[in-house]
Fold:
Amino acid sequence: MERDHATRTYWIFILIPLAVLTAFYFYPLAKVLWLSVTVPTPGFGNYEKLLSSTAIHNIMLTTLRIGVITTALSLVIGYAIAYAMLQAPPERRVWMLFIVLLSFWLSVLVRGFAWLTLLQSRGLVNTALMEMGLIDTPLPLVRNELGVVIGMVHYLIPYAVLPIFANMQGIDSRLVPAARGLGASRFTAFWRVFLPLSMPGIISAGILLFIFSLGFYITPALLGGGKTVMIAEYVAVQIMEALNWGTGSMLAVTLLVGVIALLAAVSRFANLREVFGAKS
Amino acid sequence: MTAANPSGRRGASTFVAWIGLLFLLLPIAVVVPVSFTPNRYLSLPVDGWSLRHYEAIVSEAAWRNSIGDSLLVGASATVIAVVLGTLCAVGCWRISSRLSEVMRFLMLAPIIVPSIVHALGFYQAWVQVGLIDTYAGLIIAHALKGLPYVVISVSASLANFDLRLEQAARNLGATVTQAMYRVVVPCIRPGILAGAVFAFITSWDELVVTMFITSRRVYTLPKKIWDGIQDNISPSVAAMATVLIVVTLIGIVAHLLTSRRRQDAT
Structure:
C-alpha cells in the first residue's frame, strides 16, 4: 500500500514534465509537420520541391558542403589541441583548457561580431593590409563562404576538443611507450597505436559536430551576408520575408528528419547518451 | 603525462594546437581593444582611448532594458527548467523501467532538434494562444530549451546517490515529498546547480526562437546586439561584448577554482 503510494508519486513526478513538454514542445513541432503537408494546399506538393527546385538543391548542397568542411577542419584542429593538452604539464594544460572553455562559453553573437570587425572589407585585417601597401582592394574575407567557415570552425572547435580529450584521457598511457620499446618509430607508434585508440572519440565528436553544423543559423546569417545561405537561414527567410510557410515548414521538417536519421544511424555504433554528455 | 608519453609527435601537432588556440582567442583579442576606441566607427584605439562606448551602454535605456529583460526571462526560465527537470530526473531514477528510459530520451529533444525547427513551432503555437511577444511566451520557450541540461546533470548526480538513503528516510517515517526535500535534493544540489547554470546561459544567449516569438515588447540582450550589428556596427556593441567576455571569464575562473577545491577535498 505504502509502496504503491510512493510509486504513484514518482509517476506524477515524471508525468508533470512530460505533460508540459507535450503541450508546449511536441505539439508545436507537430504543427510544423502538419503545416508542411497542408499549406498552401493539402498533399506533398511542398516535398516535391525537394526534387524539382534548383534553389533548394543549391541550399542543401551548400549546407552539406559547409557541414563537411567545418566538421573536418574542427576535428583536425580540435584533435591537435586535445593531443597537446594530454601531453602538456598540468600547469600549461589548465591554461589550454581555460582558452577552450572561454571560447566554448562565449556568446555566439559576440564571436560573430568579432569576426565581422576583423574580416569585413573595411575591417581590421583589410585596413592593416592596405595601409601596409600589400593590397589595393579589400580581400573578400567575409559575407561569403570563407567567412561562414571561419566563424563556424571557431564555434565548433571546443565541441571537438572536449569529447576527444575526455576519450584520450581514457587511453592507457603505457601503450605508446610500449610500442616505442618494441621498435616503432614515433610516427608509427602514433599512427598505429594512439590514433586507432582515439578513433571512438573522433567519430562521436565528428558526428555530433556534423549534425550540429547542419542547423546553424546565427553564424551563417551574420558572416554569410545573405550570399552564402544555409538551410536554417533559408527557412527563416522563407517565413519572415516571403511568408512562405509551406516551403519553410517543409524544409524545417526535412532538416529535422535528416538530423534524426543521422542520429539513428549513429546509435548503432555509439552510445548516444555518451555523445550528449549524459554520462559525464 | 609528459614523462609517461614522450614519444608523441611534438613538433607539427603542437604547432597546429597553438595556432588553434590563438585562433580561438583572436575574436577576444580584437573586441576588447576596439571597445576602447575614441572613434564613432569600429577601429583600434591608435591615438588614445576612451570610455565613451561604455558610457553609451550605461546611459542608453535600450541597452539597460535589454539586460533587464534577459535577466528576467533567464531567471524565470531557469526556475521552471530546474523544477521540471529535477522532478523528471528523480522520477526516472526511482522508477527505472523501459518507459523512464524513453522519457529521458524524449527530454533530450530540445537539444537535438535544430533551433529553427522549434522556433517555427513555437511561433505557430504561440499565435494560437496569444503568447507572441509576451514574457510568459518567451519564458516557457526558454525553459523548455534549458530543460534537457537540467535532466542530464541531475541524472548524472543521482547516479552517484545511494538509493538506500531515500528508503531509510521513508522507513523512518518521512513522506515521499519530505524525503525528496530533506534528503535527496540536498545531496544532488551540485547537479541541480550545474543544470541551472546551463539553463540560464542557454536562455541568456538564445536568439533564434526569440527572433520568431518576440518583437518590441520583449527585447532581450541578444536581440539588441543582433540589431546593433545589423543596423550600423557601432563600437558600443564591442563595449557590450567586452562586458560579456569579462563575465564569461569570471564564471570560468570561479568554476575552475571550485572544481580544483573539490578535487583537493576528496
The CA atoms of residues 140 and 242 of chain A lie 28 Å apart. Residues 2-38 of chain A form the longest helix (37 residues).
